[in-house]
Amino acid sequence: QVQLVESGGGLVQAGGSLRLSCAASGSISTIIAMGWYRQAPGSERELVAIITKGGTTNYADSVKGRFTISRDSAKNTVYLQMNSLKPEDTAVYYCQAHTLILGTPRQYWGQGTQVTVSS
User: Fold this and answer.
1) pLDDT by residue for the chain (119 residues), tens digit each?
2) Closest CA to 86 of 62, 104, 107
3) Beta bridge partners of residue 7, listed in sequence order
4) Neighbouring residues of 74: CB distance < 8 A, sequence distance ≥ 6
């Protein structure tokens, strides 16, 4: 089992910045990747950014050049630095952990944190 706790959401004006944090606990050694997803009202949940255990990162085209995913392994925490925010970035942001135990993949989700960007 992996537990995820997100923080750092809030209200910001367009062009501003926010940093989201996701602290993981539990079976940390089983985590092979962690990612940030978002879901806007009336829309499906979409991948924003992901970082693998090896440090490889991948981003949605809509956030490339503006968002940066990083991690602090000593704190078991993943961050999402969001710069140049746009109103269309408004959504609930969720942290996800991908685990692999004896060949069986499983995903865990945090509770979500609201990000609202005003125009």
Assistant:
1) 999 999 999 999 999 999 999 999 999 999 999 999 999 999 999 999 999 999 999 999 999 999 999 999 999 999 999 999 999 999 999 999 999 988 999 999 999 999 999 99
2) 62
3) 21
4) none
For residue 114, what are its two tokens? 């609201």
Contact 78, 24 (CB under 8 A): yes
Which token pair is 22?
A: 């996701």
Closest CA to 36 of 24, 50, 25: 50
Write b or e for each residue in 64-79: b if 16 or more Cβ atoms lie within 10 A of its Cβ, otherwise e.
eeebbbebeeeebbbb
The residues near 82 (Cβ < 8 Å, ≥ 6 apart) are 17, 18, 19, 20, 63, 66, 67, 89, 115
